[in-house]
Amino acid sequence: MGENFHPLIYPYSKAYEPYVRNEGILGEYLISALVSPRGWGYEGDVVADRQGREHMVSADFSEQWQGWDRIQTNWLSSLY
């Protein structure tokens, strides 16, 4: 098994929810944070993965500065 990556997902929207819930299908990606722009209505939402890890959606990058090693944008198209 290769190196694991810990992306911060931005901008988070409901389109990413199946990937967060089924995080194991992402291979080497272990999601560390979800950030959504203010006004999109997702701030404070909690999304749990199948292993029971909960990710709270934030609108503030400064709250999420630990635990991630890359910001993943346009993520869905990069999976294919």
Shape: globular
Structural class: alpha/beta
Helix content: 10-25%
Q: Which ranges are low-confidence, i.e. pLDDT below 50, for 5 or more consecutive residues?
A: none
Percent strand equals 15-25%
Précis, in short:
Helices cover 11% and strands 21% of the residues. It is α/β, with parallel strands linked by helices and 80 residues long.
Structural commentary:
The chain is of the alpha/beta class and 80 residues long. The chain has two helices and five strands; from the N terminus they run βαββββα. The protein has helices spanning 17-21, 75-78; strands at residues 7-9, 33-35, 46-48, 54-58, 70-72. It has a five-stranded mixed β-sheet with strand order 3-4-2-1-5. Strand 3 and strand 4 form a beta hairpin. The chain is globular. The relative contact order is 0.30.
Structural topology:
Blueprint: E1 7-9, H1 17-21, E2 33-35, E3 46-48, E4 54-58, E5 70-72, H2 75-78
Parallel strand pairs: 1-2, 1-5, 2-4
Antiparallel strand pairs: 3-4
Keywords:
2 helices, five-stranded mixed sheet, alpha/beta, 80 residues
